[in-house]
Design a protein that fits this description.
Layout: H1 3-12, E1 17-23, E2 28-32, E3 37-51, E4 54-58, E5 63-66, E6 72-88
Antiparallel strand pairs: 1-6, 2-6, 3-4, 3-5, 3-6
């Protein structure tokens, strides 16, 4: 799936805000939550999400999701990470 196709799907599914996110190499973000539902696709690097003790590493082209108000951490691999993310507020 291309970035354009992914973004079109986000808009079709009601995600109001679409942004590009970046993380520096080996960057880690502490436990936090968002007040919106998230759906993203990794464009470059490795993006790791850990929620409820389960870590998932996402590679380029892979899609990740996170429900609103779920505590989680985010981390990148040695090359950093670039991803496009849609946010849907209830």
């Amino acid at each position: 799936m291309t970035r354009e196709e992914f973004e079109a799907g986000l808009r079709r599914d009601g995600f109001q805000e679409i942004i590009e996110g970046r993380m520096e190499p080996n960057q880690a973000r502490p436990v936090h939550h968002h007040t919106w539902e998230t759906r993203g696709m990794v464009l470059e690097g490795v993006f790791r999400l850990t929620c409820e003790g389960s870590e998932q590493a996402h590679l380029p082209g892979e899609i990740f999701t996170m429900a609103a108000d779920r505590e989680h951490t985010e981390a990148s691999g040695p090359e950093g990470a670039v991803f496009v993310v849609g946010r849907k507020r209830s």
